Amino acid sequence: MATALITGASSGLGEEFARQLARERYDLVLTARREERLRAIAEEAKSLGCGRVDVIALDMSIPGSAEALYRRITDKKLAVDYLVNNAGFGTRGRFASLSLDREIEQVNLNVTALVALTRLFLPAMLERKRGTIINVASTAAFQPVPFMATYGATKAFVLSFSEALAEELSGTGVVVTALCPGPTRTEFQQVAGTAEVGVPSFSYMDAKTVVAQALDAASRGRAVKIAGLANLLLAESTRLAPRSLAARIAGAMFRGKDE
To answer: Going from the N-terminus, what domains does the chain have, and what CATH number goes with each?
Structure first.
């Protein structure tokens, strides 16, 4: 039975990836910080058709956590066929006033852990000549994002990294897809402090739709999937606009009332 590893699986998109891959009869390895929440999702996944679920509670923002996760999975003699690098968070505010420790933690989780897990699990996929990697980026990857400067930069990295890797792996049997969702109703808004910013409510998508589009895109070998037609049009429009203008527009959207 094929095995899928999902990071950030305790809520939002990660939780929905667990549901939908369980329905496709994947065995699952779920990781996030909240073990109790992971175990509840594991029970739900089993009820949806998943045969085996392993829960590994781990904070992927801590240096060395990717290597620790890899060792625990290999010790279980599990071969990861489907890797979903979903764990991540954002912060909002003027960069000069944000916590340095929190910004570094964000880079560690959104970028470092993602690169490390991809590098650790990719060789075995190449040896088997099959595998899928979905890296969760964002429509924030397509332009600078003032007041979420670190978050936007990390997602730009994820997009560029994934596109480059997809080209490197062409013809190997391993697919890499960068998922670029726009605003999605998850816990992200509360953590990032973006619930009250100027993003229109009609632009939000639900996690179920975003994940279904991601799985379909990966199955088709797509290197990039921008979830939703409106988000696709918006992301493509940034290629035509001067980056300074795109930055001003994004800044106007994410500038809080107190900035």
So the answer is: 3-254 (3.40.50.720)
